[in-house]
Structures are given as structure tokens and as C-alpha cells.
Design a protein that fits this description.
Distance between the termini of chain B: 46 Å
Number of strands of chain A: 12
Oligomer: heterodimer
Helix content of chain B: 40-55%
Structural class of chain B: alpha+beta
Distance between the termini of chain A: 37 Å
Strand order of the largest sheet of chain A: 2-8-7-6-5-3-4
Strand content of chain B: 15-25%
Largest interface: A-B, 32 and 32 residues
Strand content of chain A: 5-15%
Shape of chain A: globular
Bound molecules: pyridoxal-5'-phosphate, FE2/S2 (inorganic) cluster
Number of helices of chain A: 11
Helix content of chain A: 25-40%
CATH superfamily of the largest domain in chain A: Type I PLP-dependent aspartate aminotransferase-like (Major domain)
Number of helices of chain B: 5
Radius of gyration of chain A: 22 Å
CATH topology of the largest domain in chain A: Aspartate Aminotransferase, domain 2
């Protein structure tokens, strides 16, 4: 085994990211000295308000929106909830049909399931083997009473990038609104809400080097949305509660930095990603890429390895100083494999042996080189323990057939 | 989330492999998460002289397989039969609640191997 590096290596940027020093620096004064309430009329309040408005403009710039169309929330989850429940429950609607996909984040799927339990109808579209929704399916699913189509911009697990521009156009042509969860996409690819026909778009700060617990929902001007939080009427009455000023400032700075550096960081991550995607199947037998080889997030490499289970992979990588993640059933509280992987048509066994590597702007060639060096040994160590192999594959639901 | 003992057995599992001419084989599967465990025993004078396992499963499944083989090795058949699911988890300083079924799998595999041995002997 190669020598373990002195510093731990983080390849789990899809889960969360480090708050970079520039962002910490921008936030610091708003924690300690400039602690005013942005609604106050005095100088403390005014400096907080200015900072919140500056951040709003920075977030708007990241997605080609106007500042007044940005609503700050507590998270990506809240933004998704506000978009979906907010549209459905507005007094101008209150009933109707929603279209979404099988591979959305639970922050979209669960609000849809909730609305279904309250009498709305929901269509969940399947995806192809590579994780794309079919435009014909979208067209066929939209009905006269469809109020909202929600399709994520890029998938959190396998990185697949959806044809949002076309989907948005289809929704609009039938009088439906279009929401996209851009939590994983933001900061890694250019987004333009006008070009992409988007009415509502969810963002989360901690996925691109901002602090946790801050998000935003873009709401196209004139779009009617019911608030989830009723109270003092903050954020254009859409989201009451005293603004999280330090969080919002960090979020804004992170957006500015992401946009400023995107040409360079995206290119660097894409290069590292392609090195992983090329090398893994070359150096490890029975290893396969999940998702599309190129039409995927620049920072996402997702593979599956036959005959082994992903939690063991993640634990052994961790022991080698590398943090990554898996969609294996064993790693989830529910003991069900990732619904995204099953939606690709993978079997339980195939979903079991999956590994997600999500790169960040700070990862480098050396770190990727180390991963590529240790991974084959880790996979073969687990395969030595496995009862299954190419000569003796698992028979169907063998796990379930109990004592033989 | 795992105890040091679990991590230690997971990282350095004892008795991994197969026995070429075993006296008993136990093959069990876990309907819940789809994992599989095979256990092989060699018995001489009523004592388990050798035991090996192969497991397709999580860290806890591998650690409990390893611990079960350690607990069973050198024991008489009657003693080994008494190794319970709880004993395995206990010997590993506990398992997260969601992972208790993995220790069940290991104890079940051992029992299945003993049953297979007894059935063969009775013939
Ligand atoms: C696609 C997607 N949507 C929503 C979320 C939730 O964001 P947050 O953690 O800010 O609630 C995540 C993060 O896990 C995500 O990946
Ligand atoms: S074997 Fe799947 S959770 Fe333990």
C-alpha cells in the first residue's frame, strides 16, 4: 500500500464543502461587530441591511436573476419546500397536478409526497440508464391541470445534467411553472434563469464553500408563491424571520468567488474527474461508470464495483485517509439502496457496490493520484472476502433465499 | 458510529476464506439489505478445529463474521451452538441499532454450518 498522506483527503463535496478563508473573513465582522438586525433603522441595522442586499445581488448574478427575485431561506431543503408547497398551496391554485422525477433529492420528493397525501396528483418520471429524463415523457406527462414541473438541474449522486431549458419551455407552453433544484449545479456550471426557462430555482450555500444553514430560492417576478413561515413579513413576505446576516454574507461571498473562479475551477475539476473516470475501469476489473461519461457535473465521478458492498469501500478509504461516499443499502438508515441507482435500472447488488467521488476546487492531482493508487487494493481486499466473483455471481435475490 | 473493536475486526478480519473439504457449510442471506454470508467448519472429535468465512456485506457484517469465527474456533459443537446473536454483538462492544441484524446473520451462518455438519454425520 502507498504511504498514507499526512493530510486527510476530502472527496465528498456533494455532501458539503469547506468554508474557504475568503468567506470566513467576509462573515467575521457580521458575527461580532456588525450584529444589527437588518430591519432596524439605526446604523447597526443599516449596515446589516446593506450587507444582505449586497449578498442578494451576488447570488442573483450567479444565476442571471434580478436581486429582487432572490428569497433567502435556511437551506436547500427549505427552498425546495417553499417552491413546491408554496406554488401548490397558493390560493390561486390549491389543487392540481405536479410532474417530477424518480431521481430528485428527498427535499423535492417528500414535499411532493406530502402534497399527494393532501389531494394533489404527482407524476414521477423515470430516467434512462444514464439518468436522463426523456423529453417525450415530460411532454406526455404535462396535463392541462399541471401547475408545476420540478426537475433537478444536476443529480446529487451521479451528476447527470438534465435538459432543463427544454423542460422549462415545455412547462411554459402548457401554462405550468418550472422549478429546478440547482443545489448541486450552482457554482459548477453557468446558470441563466432566463435562457433556461426557470421560474423557481433552489440554492444551498454549503455546497459551494459557504456556511451551512443558508439557502435561497429564486422566484421569477410575478410568480405567486405561498409562504411557509408566517410572521414579520421578511423577504418580501415570502419568508419571515430575522435574516441570518453572517450566513447570508458568507453565502454571497461564496457565490461571488464561485462565479469569479468558475472558468478555472470547473476546468481543473473536470480534468481530475476525467482522470478518475478513465483510470478506474482500466485498473480495476468489473468496475463501471454510473451516469454519462461527459454530460455530468464537472466534480462527480461515480462507479460501481461488482461483488462488493460500498460501506466497506468507504470505511477502508477512510482508513487510508480519503473521505468519499456510497449509495449502498448498508450505509443508509433504511437499509434500502439509493433510489437514484435503482431508477437507473441497476440491481440491488449493483447499487450495493457503488462509490461516489465528488471533487472540490481545492483538490489536486496528487490527491487524485493517491486515490487511484489505493483504490484497486481496497476493492480486491473486499473481493477476497466476498463469496461472489465472476465465476460465481450472486443468484438473483440470493440474499433473500436464506439458509440454503 | 462503529466501536473500535468493530473497526479493528473489519480492517483485519480473522479467518477469511474457504475450507476445501469442510465438514459443514452454512450459507445465509439477509433479506433486509440483501447481504450474504458463507461459513465453513472443520470438526474433529466434536471440536471446531477450523472455521472460515466469506461475506458480502457492510463493515458490521464483516466484523461480526470475523468475531463469530474467533468465538467458535476451538469450541465443542455444543458450546458453539450456544453462541448467540447477542454474544457476537457484545464481544464487539456493541453495534449501532440499525446494524444488529448483521450480527444475527453471522450467528445464523454458524448455526447453519453446524446443522449441516450434524445432518452429514447422521447419514
Ligand atoms: C440536490 C439537493 N437538493 C437539496 C439538498 C438539501 O440542501 P440542504 O442541505 O441545504 O438542506 C441537497 C443536499 O444534500 C441536494 O444535494
Ligand atoms: S450487511 Fe447490510 S447493513 Fe450490515
Amino acid at each position: 500500500m502507498p504511504e498514507r498522506p499526512s493530510k486527510r483527503i476530502y472527496f465528498d463535496h456533494g455532501a458539503t464543502t469547506r468554508v474557504i478563508p475568503e468567506v470566513v473573513e467576509a462573515m467575521a465582522p457580521y458575527v461580532s461587530e456588525k450584529y444589527g438586525n437588518a430591519s432596524s433603522i439605526h446604523s447597526f441595522g443599516r449596515e446589516a441591511r446593506t450587507a444582505v442586499d449586497d449578498s442578494r445581488a451576488r447570488i442573483a448574478a450567479l444565476i442571471g436573476a434580478g436581486p429582487s427575485e432572490i428569497v433567502f431561506t435556511s437551506s436547500g431543503t427549505e427552498s425546495d419546500n417553499l417552491a413546491i408547497k408554496g406554488v401548490a398551496l397558493h390560493e390561486s391554485r390549491g389543487k392540481g397536478h405536479l410532474v417530477t422525477t424518480e431521481i430528485e433529492h428527498s427535499a423535492v420528493l417528500e414535499p411532493c409526497a406530502y402534497l399527494k397525501s393532501r389531494g394533489f396528483e404527482v407524476t414521477r418520471l423515470p430516467v434512462s440508464k444514464e439518468g436522463f429524463v426523456d423529453l417525450g415523457d415530460v411532454e406526455a406527462a404535462i396535463r392541462d391541470d399541471t401547475i408545476l414541473v420540478s426537475v433537478m438541474m444536476a443529480n446529487s449522486e451521479i451528476g447527470t445534467i438534465q435538459p432543463v431549458r427544454e423542460i422549462g419551455k415545455m412547462a411554459h407552453s402548457r401554462g405550468a411553472l418550472f422549478h429546478t433544484d440547482a443545489v448541486q449545479a450552482a457554482g459548477k456550471m453557468t446558470i441563466d434563469v432566463d435562457r433556461d426557462n426557470i421560474d423557481l430555482l433552489s440554492l444551498s450555500s454549503h455546497k459551494f464553500h459557504g456556511p451551512k444553514g443558508v439557502g435561497a430560492l429564486y422566484v421569477r417576478k410575478g410568480t405567486k408563491v405561498e409562504p411557509l413561515l408566517h410572521g414579520g413579513g421578511h423577504e418580501g413576505k415570502l419568508r419571515s424571520s430575522t435574516e441570518n446576516v453572517p450566513g447570508i454574507v458568507g453565502f454571497g461571498k461564496a457565490a461571488e468567488v464561485a462565479q469569479r473562479d468558475m472558468p478555472e475551477t470547473a476546468e481543473r475539476m473536470r480534468h481530475l474527474r476525467d482522470r478518475i473516470i478513465k483510470t478506474v475501469p482500466e485498473t480495476i476489473p468489473d468496475a463501471y461508470l454510473n451516469g454519462h461519461p461527459t454530460n455530468r457535473l464537472v466534480n462527480n465521478a461515480h462507479h460501481r464495483f461488482d461483488f462488493i458492498e460500498g460501506e466497506g469501500l468507504v470505511l477502508l478509504l477512510d482508513m487510508s485517509g480519503i473521505a468519499a461516499s456510497t449509495g449502498s443499502a448498508c450505509s443508509t438508515g433504511s437499509l434500502e439502496p439509493s433510489p437514484v441507482l435503482l431508477a437507473l435500472g441497476l440491481t440491488h447488488e449493483q447499487a450495493h457496490g457503488s462509490l461516489r467521488v465528488t471533487l472540490g476546487r481545492e483538490n489536486n492531482e496528487e490527491e487524485v493520484g493517491y486515490l487511484l493508487e489505493v483504490l484497486p487494493g481496497i476493492v480486491s481486499k473486499l473481493r477476497e472476502m466476498s463469496p461472489f466473483s465472476k465465476d460465481r455471481p450472486k443468484c438473483g435475490r440470493e440474499g433473500g433465499c436464506s439458509v440454503q | 458510529m462503529y466501536s473500535d473493536k468493530v473497526m479493528e475486526h473489519f480492517a483485519n478480519p480473522r479467518n477469511v476464506g474457504e475450507i476445501a473439504d469442510p465438514d459443514g457449510i452454512g450459507k445465509v442471506g439477509n433479506p433486509q439489505c440483501g447481504d450474504v454470508m458463507w461459513m465453513y467448519i472443520k470438526v474433529k472429535d466434536d471440536i471446531i478445529t477450523d472455521i472460515k468465512f466469506k461475506t458480502f456485506g457492510c463493515g458490521a457484517a464483516i466484523a461480526t463474521s470475523s468475531m463469530t469465527t474467533e468465538l467458535a474456533k476451538g469450541k465443542t459443537i455444543e458450546e458453539a451452538k450456544k453462541i448467540s446473536r447477542g454474544d457476537v454483538a457484545h464481544a464487539l462492544d456493541g453495534l449501532p441499532p440499525v446494524k444488529m441484524h448483521c450480527s444475527n446473520l453471522a450467528a445464523d451462518a454458524l448455526r447453519a454450518a453446524i446443522k449441516d455438519y450434524e445432518a452429514k454425520k447422521a447419514k
